[in-house]
Automatic annotation (TrEMBL):
PANTHER family: PHOSPHATIDYLINOSITOL-GLYCAN BIOSYNTHESIS CLASS F PROTEIN, PHOSPHATIDYLINOSITOL-GLYCAN BIOSYNTHESIS CLASS F PROTEIN-RELATED
Protein family membership: Belongs to the short-chain dehydrogenases/reductases (SDR) family.
Protein name, as recorded: Short-chain dehydrogenase
Domain of life: Bacteria
Keywords: Oxidoreductase
Length: 299
């Protein structure tokens, strides 16, 4: 029997630089903790620097060999994304891991600073812009990876090109599913473009199964069922960490939990047929570049 993969199996990360978005709690905090424990310099990229500093202090109290650095990043404001990228580039010339983890799930209808529906704007467009602005640092770093965190909810997702911002008939769960499907379409299209461009950076995806995190705070039903079905963030982070560091990961892989993809140790899993629709992925890519005004230069 193969030994289940845990954080103890993660290779040494000394000398590596990682950005983890939304790392002040839940899956993101666990990712930052483990990476710092393995020796990485971890940029905790968070909207609230006050919350992030408290979270960083909790990691520092563990006396990890790596460093944790708090930087402000509001994925709901593209100006903040650009400001973060500028600040990062001033201090760092390499980027080994970009973990696109932050997200919102099923909130009441709200818009981002640029007028996008919040879930599509933060979960997809914010990370699309951030990744594009970090691409040269990633390309300059041997063995770099981009890990984007999706969800089982992607299976019910549909990209509503005629109403991406849900101006009509907003449905929180369907809008969330659209954003999580977008995460996978983006990952697979990015990997195809990286390959054609001859870049060695890998684009991979992961999902945490059913994990008890703050992302579920807007769903009363999910919170009530958490004690029965949900796993801890410490377990839920394992697919993300596997995708980020396991040596057998390949570009375009998708990693999730073992048991019905709800809980358990990480393994390679298969996403929906919709997530592999290359025509939809190309169209979404073009729309995303237009909406964010971030051009990748990958054709």
């Amino acid at each position: 029997m193969t030994t289940p993969w845990t954080e103890d199996h993660m290779p040494d990360q000394t000398g590596r630089v990682a950005i983890v978005t939304g790392s002040n709690s839940g899956i993101g905090w666990e990712a930052a903790r483990v990476l710092a424990t393995k020796g990485a310099t971890v940029i905790m990229a968070c909207r609230s620097t006050a919350n992030a500093n408290t979270a960083a202090d909790q990691i520092k109290a563990l006396k990890p060999p790596g460093k944790v650095v708090v930087m402000k990043l509001d994925l709901g404001d593209l100006e903040s994304v650009h400001a973060f990228a500028t600040a990062f580039r001033q201090d760092y010339h390499r980027l080994d891991l970009l973990i696109n983890n932050a997200g919102v799930a099923k909130p009441p209808y709200r818009k981002t600073a640029q007028g996008f529906e919040q879930q599509f704007g933060i979960n997809h467009l914010g990370h699309f812009a951030l990744t594009g602005l970090m691409l040269d640092r990633l390309d300059a770093t041997p063995g770099a990876r981009i890990v984007t965190v999706s969800s089982l909810s992607h299976r019910s997702g549909v990209i509503r090109f005629d109403d991406l911002n849900w101006e009509r008939n907003y449905h929180p769960a369907r809008a969330y599913a659209q954003s999580k499907l977008a995460n996978l379409l983006f990952t697979y299209e990015l990997q195809r473009r990286l390959l054609v461009a001859g870049q060695s950076t890998l684009a991979v995806a992961a999902h945490p199964g059913w994990s008890a995190t703050n992302a579920l705070r807007h769903s009363n039903m999910m919170r009530r069922l958490n004690p029965i079905f949900a796993q801890t963030p410490k377990m839920g982070v394992l697919p993300t960490l596997y995708a980020a560091t396991a040596p057998d990961v390949r570009g375009g892989d998708y990693i999730g939990p073992t048991i019905l993809e709800l809980r358990g140790y990480p393994k390679k899993v298969v996403s929906s047929a919709s997530s592999h629709d290359e025509a939809v992925a190309r169209r979404l890519w073009t729309v995303s570049e237009e909406l964010t005004q971030v051009k990748y230069g990958l054709h």
